[in-house]
Design goal:
2 helices; eleven-stranded mixed beta sheet; 252 residues; alpha/beta; globular; 11 strands; Pectate Lyase C-like; single chain
Amino acid sequence: MALTIDAQGIYYAELNERIRAAIRNGERDIRLIGVVGQRYIGAGLSTEGVKIAIEGTPGEDLAAFMAGPTIEVRGNAQNGVANTMNDGTVIVHGLAGDVVGYAMRGGRVYVRGDVGYRVGIHMKGYMDKQPILVVGGRAGDFFGEYQAGGCLILLGLSSAGKDEPRPGAVVGDYCGTGMHGGVMYVRGQIRPDHLGKEVKTFDLDDGDTGRLKPILAEFASLFEIDTDIFDFHRYHKIMPVSTRPYSQLYAY
């Protein structure tokens, strides 16, 4: 049975200390209720096998620097989810704010709805350690800015859970600006003038579909999505065309 902590009216620092104390005492299944904007939940936690279920809206930097646990938010999340996260899983059943996955180094983030600006920027990857960030809805400007590794997936689904027609592109301006590593998959319409000059779009090959299938299957299972998100003819692969996109801006 999960340990329940009522976060209503509790200062964020005290709440986080209660969570850490519970984990030190051997708790591995923790349920937080009444969460209203408390910051840094899960930040720096490294104990594997820990699951934290959040009812409410956590504050900024949820799971920052986290390295192992699973956090599931039954609602929306604010800015900075998975900031510099090293490992683990974050599941958000609603919307998420800006700079989700900033400098993310490993693990997985699944957001059912839309996200804000500068999502997935400075994402990194090293050898087999490659972070994955999946967004079910739309993204704002600078999606994947300076991406250096890992995998970003943008599905463009409606917030209602059904793939209803949505006018316009699914991603904002400057998508992939400064991108010099990793890969991005965007499902739906994407205007060429929304892309950074450092990237180009490519057709998916068998390797891409093989990589996407288990990720999308997990996403669909987590959020009970019955829409066909395996319609790979609707996807665009975005990759950098230079490993040094700004080399001409510097003097040597």
